[in-house]
Automatic annotation (TrEMBL):
InterPro entries: Endo/exonu/phosph_ase_sf, IPPc, Jacalin-like_lectin_dom, Jacalin-like_lectin_dom_sf, Sph/SMPD2-like. GO terms for molecular function: phosphatase activity; sphingomyelin phosphodiesterase activity. Residues 1-20 form the signal peptide. GO terms for cellular component: cytoplasm. This is Jacalin-type lectin domain-containing protein. Residues 296-437 form the Jacalin-type lectin domain. Gene3D superfamilies: Endonuclease/exonuclease/phosphatase (3.60.10.10), Jacalin-like lectin domain (2.100.10.30). It comes from the Eukaryota.
Length: 438
């Protein structure tokens, strides 16, 4: 990833007082690595599968792609990781029949990693129920205060009626998960969809109609026109015009602007030394540019990966004037809830109903500019124990119990804290802050 060196603001987290970029670029690769045991499926790929897997890993290291989602990464997973050198990599969930075959290699760290099994599978034309296929979710940190929710999926294969029904359910399951867990966020969904636009029963357009995502291939190669006739790709493919089942969908948010700038089938980059293919799928490669929002931004996250996702971004994004008029916290041994009321009367609140309430009313020209958070362990889970808010006038409001594990988040110069995002239940499990210009 390359970040703009000329357009910087004070780090939204102020960890080490570093500078955070407000724009940059990254790329994303999706590749089905044909890692089923050879006895089950040779994938019509020449050569030894372990050797091919090591070559794939060496190609990942050579090209250094920023985000790589792999599918069918089953029994040759160790061979890929043996020759790859990405700093951040998911641990395997196992070979056949124990694992999902889904893994991620990246130049960025992430939080809230989750594996989800499909609710529906079908063995109508293949053994899709043999392994716990499904999708994975991670909140990828591209830069300080810049996050993109990334989904890796591998849906049911085949074209029998049972396969179509299962695949439709698979795609809808991810779409519904996005509605719950990615509200207000930038999103990437990419992997092996086993779907084509001409297979209307799949309803692959659900990511556009339900989640507001854009298919990078459809946008950049097909000028936004949905194909009505099937076009099959050679492998390796000499053109991007043909359609594969491997796809990438994306959207930006009020916090992060995302724009796909190029799409290609990267199969010519993944060949054996004799020119043979390494997988029966054409890998897809998409380049992106990103920039921080002009009206809303966020801090880094603090706390643990528990509770239910919440975000004030959508509510705040619909407003033109954003200013905190009243702060309201509640806590005792830990932080039970956080809230604030905007100057237009809109009330924002998250967490439970326990604890002792504390409030602070801000003046008409006073802004909430920084917050200290402390975290700790409760029932073997990391939660937020304490918050202390400081305003531009030097007033403070605190709640909960301080610990030895604390950090301070300060809004960039000329900005203010106006809302929250994170995860909660009866208490606050994870928290980040939404910034807006003063």
């Amino acid at each position: 990833m390359k970040s703009s060196a000329v357009n910087v603001v004070l780090s939204t987290a102020l960890v080490g007082k570093s500078l955070a970029a407000t724009s940059g670029d990254f790329n994303a690769l999706a590749m089905n690595v044909a890692g089923l045991p050879a006895i089950f499926n040779g994938n019509e790929v020449p050569g030894d599968k372990a050797t091919n897997a090591r070559t794939i890993g060496s190609k990942f290291a050579e090209y250094g792609y920023d985000i790589i989602h792999v599918q069918e990464d089953f029994n040759y997973h160790a061979n890929i990781y043996e020759t790859d050198n990405h700093k951040y990599r998911t641990a395997t969930s196992g070979g056949v029949p124990f694992g999902s075959g889904l893994n991620t290699l990246a130049n960025f760290d992430w939080i809230d990693y989750t594996r989800v099994k499909w609710d529906t599978c079908s063995d109508a034309s293949s053994n899709d129920c043999l392994t716990p296929k499904g999708f994975t979710f991670m909140r990828l940190k591209v830069d300080d205060g810049v996050y993109v929710d990334c989904y890796n999926l591998h849906t049911d294969a085949g074209t029998e009626d049972g396969d179509e029904t299962a695949r439709n359910s698979n795609l809808a399951q991810v779409a519904n998960y996005i509605d719950i867990w990615s509200t207000g966020n930038a999103v990437l969904v990419f992997g092996d969809t086993n779907s084509r636009y001409t297979r209307t029963a799949d309803n692959i357009t659900i990511y556009s109609s339900q989640n507001g995502l854009t298919d990078a291939w459809l946008q950049l190669v097909r000028n936004g026109v949905v194909p009505t006739e099937e076009t099959l790709c050679d492998n390796p493919s000499a053109t991007s015009y043909c359609e594969t089942v491997d796809k990438l969908f994306y959207r930006g948010s009020a916090l992060v602007n995302l724009q796909a700038t190029s799409f290609e089938y990267a199969s010519p980059k993944f060949l054996q030394s004799n020119g043979s293919i390494l997988s029966d799928h054409n890998p897809i490669l998409v380049n992106f540019t990103w920039s921080s929002g002009s009206s809303l931004r966020q801090s880094n996250f603090f706390g643990g990966p528990h509770g239910t996702w919440f975000s004030d971004v959508t509510t705040l994004g619909a407003k033109t004037g954003r200013k905190a008029a009243t702060l309201s916290f509640s806590g005792a041994n830990r932080l039970d809830s956080v809230g604030l009321t905007l100057s237009d009367g809109t009330a924002l609140k998250h967490g439970g109903t326990g604890g002792t309430a504390a409030t602070l009313t801000l003046g008409s020209t006073e802004y909430w500019t920084s917050a200290q958070l402390c975290q700790g362990q409760k029932d073997s889970q990391t939660r937020i124990f304490y918050i202390k808010a400081t305003t531009s006038a030097g007033k403070t409001l605190e709640s909960g119990t301080s610990t030895s594990d604390c950090t301070t988040f300060t809004a960039p110069t000329g900005w203010q804290i106006v809302g929250y995002l994170g995860q909660d239940g009866d208490e606050i499990d994870q928290l980040a802050f939404v910034y807006a210009p003063q």
